[in-house]
Amino acid sequence: xxxxxxxxSPVTGMPSFSWYLSPTHKLLVKAASLSDAVTVGGPxxxxxxxxxxxxxxxxxxxxxxxxxxxxxxxxxxxWMALQRSAGADRLLLPGVFIPWxxxxxxxxxxxxxxxxxxxxxxxxxxxxxIDVRWLSKRVERLVDLLADAGCPTALVLAERADPLxxxxxxxxxxxxxxxxxxxxxxxxxxxxxxxxAFGAVHASIGLTTSTRHFTTATMKARRLPGSSARLFVxxxxxxxxxxxxxxxxxxGSSILCQxxxxxxxxxxxxxxxxxxxxWHTMHALADFADLVINAxxxxxxxxxxxxxxxxxxxxxxxxxxxxxxxKAQLTGWAFS
Length: 336
Ligand SMILES: [Zn+2]
Hints:
The protein has helices at residues 28-31, 45-54, 76-85, 106-122, 133-137, 139-147, 169-179, 191-197, 242-250, 278-293, 300-313, 328-334, and strands at 16-21, 37-41, 60-64, 96-98, 126-131, 153-158, 183-188, 202-206, 230-233, 238-241. Helices cover 35% and strands 15% of the residues. The two termini are 29 Å apart. The protein is an alpha/beta fold and 336 residues long. The chain folds into two domains: 11-219, Aldolase class I (TIM Barrel), CATH 3.20.20; 230-334, no CATH class. 49% of the residues are buried. β1, α1 (28-31) and β2 (37-41) form a beta-alpha-beta unit. The longest helix is centred in the middle third of the chain and has 17 residues, at 106-122. The strands form two sheets. It has an eight-stranded parallel beta sheet. Zinc ion (ZN) binds next to α10.
């Protein structure tokens, strides 16, 4: 693990979760009260967090400079110093993207080897943005490389849509998380909590389609139809548009949220474009995260899988009139 920067162990080196946000996100300070830490994306993170620190912001922060996405960062030593000056919980390398190459699987070994040496020299966490096929098709190699890395790893999964919907990705992530010491899932969705349930240390959860996974310019992100807000529905453990949710209500089933964000109000109200659903989504995800993270370590897998199975069973219920079928990731977890 990285050496503590302030004489303590990193908060994100133990089972924990953070929100993955831009450094100027309007809810950043408030959001930190619901999570163990905040992950700040982009090269300006340290500068912006330093400004907040001067105003008394004390939350644990990780900095994802997004070097793997081609973002221009200062030389690596300077990037480390910037993170340190902004009170980083631990230091993250700029990161590299590893494209899929079925004809040259050793390309994975070479890049991981380089990053591992750099991370060990700088006492940092290596950041690997990988085409999800390395996870779905070459997991043995990935496990071998990361289990022996000698430094913590933060993985970013790259795919045009949900990487954990790809066949084999969920079960392989389960295995990877159980074998690799100190794994972080960076820039992910709630599936990162599954990784934590099975042994990863940190889930960094994004709230928009562009921060719930990484999509390269050539991957052609799928544009989802509709324009109403997308929000996380705790009972179904998935994201839905307010317009879809309103449809369930019209069919005779109202979706009420009993968490402090909504105090029993219907989620269909987010059809009103003037209402921001982000605070609700954060509460819903934090409720799920707390359940997993606060469980005894030996109970985490069962707690997580029980939640997934219970949620999956709510789909297609005649008495509910909600969505017909769970999406691939939820099915993946429920039957893993
Ligand atoms: Zn709510």
